[in-house]
Amino acid sequence: MPKAEIHIHLEGSVRPSTLLELARRNGVRPPADTLAGLQEFFRFRDFPHFIEVYIAVCNCLRTPDDFATIVRELGQDAAAQNIRYLEVHFNPETNVRKRGLDFHDMLGGMNCGRAEAREQWGVEMRWIADGVRDSETSPYSVTRTVDWIAALEPADGVVALGLGGNEVGHPPAPFAADFARAREAGLHTVAHAGETTGHDTVRDSLDLLCVERIGHGVRSIDDPNLVVRLARERIPLELCPTSNVCTGVVPSLADHPFRAFDEAGVVVTVNSDDPPLFGTTLTDEFLVLARDWGYGPDGLQRIALNAVDVSFLSEEDRQRMRAAFEAEFATLREELGLAPVR
Q: Which of 76, 172, 211, 293 has CA atoms 20 to 30 A from the CA of 137?
């Protein structure tokens, strides 16, 4: 089935074999010396351990060519799953400050990889530049990120400002002015919220940052009034089921509120977050919907189209992609002997 993904992290999508090669050529000690060792290192104890793993991966990325490589491979991996479009989070400020990269050179490398993915596999990408809320330089991490991206051209591919990092102890309020600056520059806005903290972080992200989408947002389920608001205002949730289990955000897939949000009328999307870190793919996440939560063809198609509908593509491109997806779904249904979508 055709797919789009709107919540995936570039640095968290590096193939383990590529990570070892990048560490070798950059003279960096990797978090483990073998693929088996990396898999063991990726067995998360809790969310802070996940952050530790993520930082160790980022430490191996040192040159624009490294970023071109991982973007190209992300496109190849997407094509293998029939993913046509990705909105990819990346962390510019920490990569510049900690690893000596120039922002524009790094973005140039990413866009070289993006062009290759488009030309070779027909996979399109856009970038979401995340400020890091718990950075040593916070809230400057967000300020500097806006300084860079506000002056970019559409061809550079950056469509939104995001807010990432550990939510605990880092509420949205200090970042409100920079999110306002991003909106004034014509950028979209998103924020991770309600993943490792409560529903108040989701509400504050909506009220103070005026974000258009919420990354994760699972703890919204604890406040019925907030769930009603999300549904009424059509605020999409970028849900990542396997990620949430791996980091201990929810105890199991059976405890995940995805279906409850959907049944309450919230616009839900399914995403892989950091595929190799969590041993998943976007295809695997759709299989969770089918095998664990009982979604049939109509539900899978509806949720796949949700990602297109709430993407940050232009209206023209969004409508074109939706029409292409609908045509391909119709062909698939006919081949499988399924009735047309109701």
A: 211
User: Which amino acid does the sequence have at 118?
Assistant: R
Four-CA torsion 309, 230, 255, 38, nearest 10 degrees: 60
What is the per-residue pLDDT across 251-271, written as a single tens digit (0 to 9) for each? 999 999 999 999 999 999 999
- How far is the C-alpha of 324 from the C-alpha of 328, rounded, in Å? 6
Q: Quick check: 45 pLDDT over 70?
A: no
Catalytic residue among 167, 195, 238, 285: 195
pLDDT digits (tens, 9 = 90+) for 75-127: 999 999 999 999 999 999 988 988 889 999 999 999 999 999 999 999 999 99
- DSSP lists the bridge partners of residue 268 as 237
User: CA distances (Å), 169 to each of 43, 109, 166, 211, in order?
Assistant: 25, 34, 8, 20
Residues 182, 150 contacting (CB under 8 angstroms): yes
- Name the pTM for this structure: 0.94
